[in-house]
Amino acid sequence: ISASKPSKWEQTTHNGETPLFLAVSSRLLENAGFLLLSGCNPNAKNFEGNSPLLTAVLQDSYEMATLLISHGADVNLRCANERTALHEAAKLGRLDMVKLMLVSGAHPDPRSSYGFTPLALAAQNGHTEIMEILLEKGANALGQASDSSSILLEAASGGNPDSVTLLLGHGADANIPKNSGHLPIHVAADRGHLLALKILVPVTDFAAIKQSGISPIHCAAAGGHPECLELLIQAGFDVNFMLDQRVRKHYDDQRKSALYFAVSNGDLSSVKLLLSAGALPNQDPVNCLQIALRMGNYELISLLLRHGANVNYFCRVNPLHFPSALQYTLKDEVMLRMLLNYGYDTQRCFDCPHGDKVQPVYVFEGWTPTVIKDTMFCEVITLSWLQHLSGKVVRVMLDYVDQVRICSKLKAVLQKQGLWSEINFILTNPRSLKHLCRLKIRKCMGRLHLRCPVFMSFLPLPNRLKAYVLFKEYDLYEQGIFTGTW
């Protein structure tokens, strides 16, 4: 026996839409009423899993929704992702629709396939009045989604302080993490929701933050929200709280500090706040100074150097001493002098073990794909694409050293440069006593003190002498020179 042919009211389009579904989608109230009176099924879903009632909610058509419900539309019908019409009404802030669903028998706390309830969706979007109604009808303020995200965390994400306060008043706990370890305070800081953050700070336990392995300071810095960062600093959060290893492993550079996030964003305001609050600039495997040098950001570089950034950093991610910081400054005299003024080990660049001997010739230039080695300065600066810079770079570096010997490889390249006669004169003549005294004082101070401007202020020396010791005459950035391209 062949299957009976569907009635004309049950026939569908290629998307599974019945005539009633099309009438609802087109907001044709009179047509929808006629179809319902003619026996069209008000609960027939399309191939996407949406019902006519859910579509009416999406279109904010109250009259259409009322009509459908009066003709038997199921307010608790599960649509795509197990959503109900109440889910969508709460998410979109459609207050009249929410009231209509509830008065028509809608369950106040259904869970979608992701574990979200209408209350969670209303919290996520800051619809506090709808939240109040749902809570009065018995919605659970302590519910969690499939990833353990609490409704309070969703409210923190939305940023409405009234929503956060409402949930806390109904017993919500600010110390319940989601699976990733994040707490509501982390989300508020990351999104820059200052008012919500103010409410969450006093109700969040430090033990819960420590357990999460990440500080809200990190989140505010990563999100680029200096006003939230300032609030957290004033509240006593530690600017040197380091990411836990389980969090760090998700970053290729294994970053640890909040300062690293701020520097990576080029966020000067946040960097200033963190450094002023005592953030240490040398804690990350990839040094914060290295990031600033890559960017070529003079102000960032200057800030970090004035707060003790190590110009002779050793990168634990790519463990080569050289080219290190110097590699980013070979084409820029302003940046080069910044490093040299703050104690870069210039002498080491000229300590070539080959000396006057003929150095071995490699088949190719640069680094091999299989061997990582601590490359010498002379090997880098004599590369074919850098040779034209060698004279200018070496001439600047000679301002920061005593007598040095140039190895045969570097000398052969320098002799072809226009500055060779000047370089050769410096190399073959005694340095001034004044210059030698400066180098001696700097050596006695040590590199740690050279990186600490506060230390110099305590030395019982005339200001002119202090300026001379710090190579202030070569501080092009402080002199207002903001482009140092050769």
TrEMBL record:
Pathway in which this enzyme or protein is active: Protein modification; protein ubiquitination
Repeat as UniProt keyword: yes
Entry's transmembrane regions: none
Residues annotated as domain SOCS box: 428-475
SUPFAM superfamilies found in the cross-reference section: Ankyrin repeat, SOCS box-like
GO CC terms, sorted: cytoplasm
A Pfam match: Ank_2
Gene3D superfamilies assigned: Ankyrin repeat-containing domain, SOCS box
Coiled-coil segments on the chain, per record: none
Alphabetically ordered keywords of this record: ANK repeat, Repeat
ANK repeat positions: 15-47, 48-80, 81-113, 114-140, 147-179, 212-244, 254-279, 284-316
GO terms, biological process: intracellular signal transduction; protein ubiquitination
Alphabetized PANTHER family for the sequence: ANKYRIN REPEAT AND PROTEIN KINASE DOMAIN-CONTAINING PROTEIN (PTHR24198), ANKYRIN REPEAT AND SOCS BOX CONTAINING 14 (PTHR24198:SF176)
Protein name: Ankyrin repeat and SOCS box containing 14
Organism: Loxodonta africana (African elephant)
Gene: ASB14
